[in-house]
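Q: Structure tokens for this one, please.
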Amino acid sequence: MSVSGRSKRVLLYSHDSFGLGHVSRCRTIANAIVEADHTVSVLIVSGSPIIGSYEFRSGIDFVRIPGVVKQIDTGEYDSANLRVNVEHTLEMRTRIIRDTADIYRPDLFIVDKEPLGLRGEVGPALHLLKQRGTPLVLGLRDVMDDPAQLAKEWERKNVVPALRDLYDEIWVYGLPQINKPLTGIEVPPSVRHKMIYTGYLRRELPLHTDVPHEGEEIDGPFILVTPGGGGDGVELVDWVLSAYETDSNIPYGAVIVFGPFMSGAAREAFKERAAKFRNIRTLTFTNNLGALMHRAAGVVAMGGYNTFCEILSFDKRAIIVPRTRPRLEQFIRARAARNVGLLEMLDADRGRDPQHMATALRQLPQQGLPSEVVVPGLLDGLGNVWRLVSKQLANPHRGPASLDSPEMPAESAAPDTASLPSRART
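A: Here is the predicted structure, written as tokens:
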């Protein structure tokens, strides 16, 4: 891409109240954007406490807003670190998001998953940028939740008016033949016309591909066990360790990555159990999980969106054990992927018999690879996202700066860009 001409600015929002999924998806998109066009700057607004642990390409920075945490059982939120109530924290977050949008003056604003943000915190920024004529995009993962639950949630949050009146486009980072995230949701035809399916977001090996030493210590092939952020991954890790404790004939060793949000007490208990096996290693967190997965013979995971994309990208045999609380998202995705032959799934709600997991681990080497299933456009997401971004940046319109924000110098228009992927109706 040409590096001449005006600089362009993209703002990404990710509420990141739980786990690693949102910040990982935003990071992947941001890296792809600045790699495709070196005149673009991307600013990520995130509540993730570990966003600074990730490696970003030149041209990307982030604003860290005060964190909140979701209680797994109730779905309610609380302040993560500040000794203030959650309402005060959300008020701070709302002002920071709006002021960042005001001063940064993006040419494009992409909101991840939550149309109005956490408890409406993105609303003021959306209205401000809408008045300025800034394109507004909602990015949705392939599966949101059980349609009945999603309908209730969106009605409670008054989401549909925002989809109808504020957003210019809705990008779905998946394919309709896997899942249509708004099936069963009553939205106006105008909203469905805004939807564009991009395909899944392919993951590349990190810039530094050194495998964490835990992977190097195992003699022979190993299975990567990853419960994502780990906050709700105790049952998965327990089930896998119970399988090794029950069956000595599992052919591969394991590297278990607990995730940064698993409790310290659970991690220590699992480390003691794993230490009894010469071919099981553990670690809390790595920002180079892609390198581990690339080397692994197979994967056992909970099946969040980003893990699913990594499994497809690195073409790994996988056993998915989806969570079903507080959302059915992972279960719906895993079931759909199993039905087309991309992976295997175990339903923990039917019981966690150690022998059942052991059987699945022994059969893992005989599973088919995802690449053996032909799904057109499956991993075309990043290329299509860039085409959509470049179209919006071709005729940037930041609008006038507000009286309390610094005026930016006028710059020449950006060149036109390539054609877009076709729209797929839901």
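A few notes: Residues 86-104 form the longest helix (19 residues). The radius of gyration is 22 Å.
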